[in-house]
Amino acid sequence: MGSEYSVLQHRLPLTFYFLLLTSYFLLFTSYRLPHTNSYLCAMIGTLQKQDIRKLSLDEIKAFFRGHGEKEYRALQVYEWIWMKSATDFDQMTNLSLSNRQLLKEHFSFQLLRIDKMQRSADGTIKNAVRLHDGLVVESVLIPHEKRITACISSQVGCSLDCRFCATARLKRMRNLSVDEIYDQVVAIREQSQLFFSRPLTNIVFMGMGEPLLNYSNVIGAIDKITSQKGLNMASKRITLSTVGIARMIRKMADDEVKFNLAVSLHAAIDETRSAIMPINETNTLNDLAGALQYWYQKTKRKVTYEYVVWQGINDTTEHASALLKFCKIIPCKVNLIEYNAIGDDKFRQAPESVLQSVMELLESNGITTRVRRSRGKDIDAACGQLANKDE
Ligand code: SAH
């Protein structure tokens, strides 16, 4: 008995030191991992209160019910969040103080913050948006004569590796949540009023990331932006731009979405497209054509093709004829986008005369074609230039 006791006495401190050493080792090695921030944030996140905006209306109702409160309070909260873009429970003035306190005890708002705002000579505003876990995305306000457009990010970084795009140089870090996408729109809506005294009219998903690889959150955010219990903006003023993921285009058609679809085509010959957009290896032009036919059959809505003409890459008459042929698959429009150089000599914008001849070929065959001039180039806010350069 006496000897057992003494063994235990010696064992306890040993176990204690072992545990101490192990936790020190774990902490030390994780501290040196490249994702230290997100690792620690994930740990801290588990201790944080849940963001109220992660809850559906039914879940908020269940919360109030569970606390012996009236269910209709949930609708009031929901409207404060998504219709009036509240960011604090104290703004919810039609709720009693005790209800607000109850919410504060259980939930939080994980808000994004505009770290830096840059204004271009042409009026374009670029925002560096810091997310609750410290990561940064960019969103852009583009003022036009008759409309104001918000260019929104859907992912932090991008996984697609399009050879001509600056965002591709950042690896994909994570998807944005519904509220993070919604908050970018709300911030730009406020800037639109503040700097131009005009309402935000259009939204394009042409910022960082591939929206169809974050489909459910993008759809969730569009729902909050367009619904009457949300920002009540018209779906037809929203355009989702995709690299062209065939199965997801079919899914959108099945879901009968009401917004516009733009496809970054950039080449209508497989060999060329695969060389500049690796996604084409698994989503060939034929796959894309099939998905687009399905889209048109279901939605009866035109698609817009985005096309940059690069010298020595896709500027031959053969490329122009292939583009025309592709344009005949379903009703469409073509935007010839000006190239924004990202410091790679392989890609150079074709001369104006080539752009004009592509445009004439398409127009003479009844395809509406526009040349889209870049905006915000001086602050790296143009298409494909979003890359957190100032980070
Ligand atoms: N992932 C989506 C949306 C983000 S990119 C997509 O691929 O459509 C938005 C648009 O900018 C796309 O048409 C893209 O091909 C284009 N783009 C990317 N880099 C560009 C650059 N350097 N100059 C001009 N357009 C570019």
Main features:
single chain, disordered N terminus, two-stranded parallel ribbon, 10-stranded mixed sheet, elongated, 391 residues
Overview in brief:
With 391 residues, the protein is of the alpha/beta class. It is built from twelve helices and 14 strands. The radius of gyration is 26 Å and the shape is elongated.
Number of helices: 12
Tell me how many strands there are.
14
What low-confidence regions span 5 or more consecutive residues with pLDDT below 50?
A: 1-46
Helix content: 40-55%
Largest sheet: 10 strands, mixed
Q: Structural class, from secondary structure content?
A: alpha/beta
Task: Name the hetero compounds present.
Answer: S-adenosyl-L-homocysteine
Radius of gyration using CA atoms only: 26 Å
Order of helices and strands: HHEHHHEEEEEEEHEHEHEHHEHEHE
In what range is the share of β-strand residues? 15-25%
Shape field: elongated
Strand order of the largest sheet: 3-4-5-6-9-10-11-12-13-14
Chain-averaged pLDDT: 87
How would you describe this structure to a colleague?
- The chain has 391 residues and is α/β, with parallel strands linked by helices.
- Helix content is 41%, strand content 16%.
- It is built from twelve helices and 14 strands.
- The strands form three sheets. It has a ten-stranded mixed sheet with strand order 3-4-5-6-9-10-11-12-13-14, covered by helices on one side.
- Strand 3 and strand 4 form a beta hairpin.
- The radius of gyration is 26 Å and the shape is elongated.
- The chain starts with a helix and ends in a 19-residue tail after the last strand.
- The N terminus is likely disordered.
- Bound molecules: S-adenosyl-L-homocysteine (SAH).
- The site of S-adenosyl-L-homocysteine has 17 residues, from strand 10.
